[in-house]
What does this fold into?
Amino acid sequence: MSNSNYMLPFCVYHKYDRSSNSLYGYLGNSQKDKNGKFKCIPYDNDWELKGTFYAIDPKIRPIPHRMNLYMVERNEGFPYNSTKLDIDYDFYFTQMQKNKVYFLTYSSIIKFTVPLYFFKNGMNLLPSFTKPDASDKFWDEWTELKPSPLYVITDKSIINKSIDNLEFKCVNGACIPWPEEIDDIYIANKNDSKFDFTSCLMYCNVINSNRGVNSTNLLSNIRHSEENSPLIKTSSISNTKPSHSLLYILVIIIVVLVIIGIAIICFFLSRKGSSKKIFTNEMIKYM
It folds into this structure.
């Protein structure tokens, strides 16, 4: 299966305004060409395409291990630049907005990826594949955002292999790009299986044991661990006790309420009797 339906190109543009000595950035979606391929096309005469990276279709669920769903917001008015970067927690992806770009990519350094930095100056967000020269005073007013850098796949990072045919390995629960053979330094047992991205996600639902035990489904493994955990068993036994204790407490509360009720009734009856006696004595006095 090809990666073409799940790995999409995203485009990084810069624009320099000489009149105000301002630099603007824009991260945008790619567009389909006449052959049905997604490509980064010229955004505007004033905007320069600085680079293309590949990220995962934001609609894929579950969100892959070691990845985040990122959202880049765009200014809807002039100069139509990017203004905000956030990690999006809309896991069901129900509220996609037109002025925002969404993508899934790695949140930490991964082999065969490159860092993508994000800098902020007021309401201007600048995505960049390089860090600015710290000695250049032009950058004094720019700050790097907290989620930065993100780690993305580029043609150069995968040694110019075709993105459609790029293979992935499942390593410690994460799908890692694997354009060429390298020493398998990530895991103790040898893992030779390689897949397209979506097949890798499904394969990563299987745990490969380092102890020579057959692979087991992740959910089955968790269920088995819970069933054999002494903490879980103790908890399940102790959970039957609170139900009896609750019953005893309820009975005691009812008894106390009944006693209080009887006491209140007796109190009012005694007051009524004493009032009647006083009234009778007063009547006798005047007769």
